[in-house]
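Re: [help] complex structure
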Amino acid sequence: METEKIRKRSRITEKELLAPDIYRLSFETDLCSSAEPGQFILVYPPDGAKLLGRPICIADVTSAGSGDAGQRLSIVFRIAGSGTREIASCEKNDILFIEGPLGHGYPSDDDLLKGRDIVLLGGGLGAPSLLFLAKKLAERKDIPGSITVILGYRDSSLDHFLADDFRRIGIETLIATDDGSEGIRGNVLDAMDSSGIRADLIYACGPMPMLSAVKRYSTERSIPAYVSLEEHMACGVGVCLGCVVRTAEKDPHSHVYNARICTEGPVFDIKDVEI
Amino acid sequence: MSTQESRPDLGIDFAGHHFRNPVTVASGTFGSGLEYSRFVDLNTLGAVTTKGVSDKPWEGNPTPRVTETPSGMMNAIGLQNPGVDVFIERDLKFLAGYDVPVIVNVCGHSVEEYEAVVERLADDDRVEMLEINVSCPNVKQGAIQFGTDPGMLTEVTGKCRSKAKNKPVIMKLTPNVTSIAEMAKAAEQGGADGISLINTFTAMKIDIYRRRFVLGNRTGGLSGPAIHPIAVRMVYEASHAVKIPVIGMGGIATAEDAIEMMMAGAVMVAVGMVNFTKPDAVTDIINGMEKYLTDTKTHDIRSIIGLL
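Output below.
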């Protein structure tokens, strides 16, 4: 029987420090040619003492330059503990096991996008998940509506990482900071309102308090919204039931009010999850 | 390349049932096989052991439910499952499409709930054996309470045995006891056809920066390679205390670990946490066990069971 190979040793082709403790790693891989924005990979710490893969969203997939094998998949992550510290200590040409693409990403079918003004809301480390989406949306010449991204940061200590990457895609990019040190003072929703930006469709990724606020905002205004969630995971493929989120209706797989973030998510219709 | 005749025999017999090899998976680390069937040919396993199933659907515990620990992990899933009706309609139906024996893990809050599930499965031809989970540390009522008191363990074993008709009943034991030999004897006395051990160790982890428990349930079960040497010791003690066969588990990550567990006294072995970190680990373990037998000129794997 042929079984799938979605876990492979992959070479690091680039490493970049974007801000204190925030890194971009690019891998040479053929795993993610079908990857969609919002999907994630598991990255296994190389030492072997830490066993679980770290779930990290796909920040971009590009084709390799001429003469190079495979595609380039990049991730952007912050050192959050000893596992991500180990991954961040890897250098160009080091080899890591990665597994993916996993989960369900941001829906973007024609009927959903058609004629809508789209707003992407990224809070802190939520921005990388939206970068790949922004690129794919910008490639869709058939979308008549506008696309705006609003990136929220606490202050300027993270150097507004990735903001220039969004700008390079050519979509309008606003910055909001809690302390007003850059862009608009306030959170991403404050920035949307104070800038008079209209949203017919919201994609959001960020810390849970921000996503809860997006849920209230979109519900009050009946704006369709999709959010990407994160949670501690063990398997990443729907077996361990470690990474669940409370759901509004009984989940068709679990038959209880829980859905697996790794499998049914990480992106959910905001109406479907209790956040 | 060895010929068909000279290949070692991995087949074993457990509670009167024959299995093509001794390797199954630890309940809760393999779902009902659907997700890992992308990575593993289920027909190569000795048996699939399914995630614990209860009478009614269980919601499980609040998140976070899992966290990594040195050479292992802690979990407090809380036996979330869709209930036995969905399990029969969906999971058993899926597994019936494969040529692999199914060991169904049964959980409950009370003796009556265990009995209800056992009764539903006792006549189902798709079920090879029943494993009764009296050892989950993560549910408030039932489970581990039945597995830490010898009298209660004997009683719940007898009740399940009487409802199980011709299905072998295996009692899954917790290591959170003073004497595993005493618990093994209590299960045997209740009429168990076999025992499986070890379930996870009750453990705790604190996030010192957030100053709170890491797991939503405060405590969780520790598993993985970190506990393997303790599991080997407990399988040794339990298997020497009873005549019924033992499924050995606890941190098995390699073929060598599995062989070691059999030498300690296990007739079958179950692969657990490593499924999460290496989804095709069971395939490597089965192949590695065959290679070990070939390399050591051991023709029949049964000859290494309880060698020490």
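The mean pLDDT of chain A is 93.
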